[in-house]
Amino acid sequence: MKIGIVGLPNVGKSTMFNAITNAGAECANYPFCTIEPNIGVVPVPDERLDNLTKMYNPQKTTHAIIEFVDIAGLVKGASKGEGLGNKFLSHIREVDSIVEVVRCFEDPNVVHVDGSIDPLRDIETINLELIFADMETIDKKIEKTIKMLKADKKYQEELDLLNKIKSVLEQGKSARTIDFTDEEKELLKDTYLLTTKPILYIANVSEEQLANVENDENVKKVAEYAKTENSKVIPLCVKIEEELSGLEPADKKEMLEALGLDESGLDKVIKESYDLLGLMSFLTAGEPEVRAWTIKKGTKAPQAAGKIHSDIERGFIKAEVVSYDDLMREGSMVAAREKGLVRSEGKEYIMQDGDIVLFRFNV
User: Fold this and answer.
1) Sign of the dihedral defined by the CA atoms of residues 200, 204, 210, 215, in that order
2) CA distance 217 to 203
């Protein structure tokens, strides 16, 4: 699963990408220093794995992973090919969701592409380019659907949906503001609209702003806008996150405590990004390996088993399941079994986040 990090030039997006992935993407105080998208794969922070590792002392611990793509900075006119517009749009098409970095800090040493700090204008600049690109896609699709409708009336439903989306886009709103039914989502599957992709906003603030972030006017503006799209905003100081990412765990913990924070902002970004994609983890635990496996929410047991190996899905008999909380409370799998907390689940069982599972199968 890929998350695209986007933003105007010089808002801190490449610095954030570096901090998340320690991948060393070039950071410079000028537009378009990121031309080809940098890609970094990072583990999803999960304290459950840390605790299971202490319990089982395995040879190996494997976290779920998520892929971040640092996409070139965008400017007005991208949908018409301005700047690196065509590349920008093609790279966004390839990701599953978007993290949009919005500059909320003042710094005379870092130029703003539009000359001043205005987070709502910046959000609008990016989102309008995506809306314009989607309108072009929708217009082409409408034209094609009208032709198909002449031959088969079943396309009327699709045409109605396309016109509904077009009406919303024409109001300057993203398609993600529409509450689509499951049937509508199915109809849209091959349309590849940019503004239906889930989005998470990052309000990039200074260290001074971070100390009183809940009262910061710029952050409030971003939060209010995010609410209109049923999206979330995470305020963080990218500069501090960059410092934290270079520290050893003990020093990092000390710095977080000094800042009065429970966890780094980037850990929140990674966790929220995982959730944004509708993903969750089930766990397997034993002496060889403690591991988190990524599945979509709503996945049934046999399909979850298939994440480990296709043979396990094919020969699925049952899943022996204990919840993470129950196992931690009892202290061992043996104690959990004695209390009747290890359940035997069949093919229709819908996996829950944090299930610890042993799959029984026969091939």
Assistant:
1) negative
2) 11
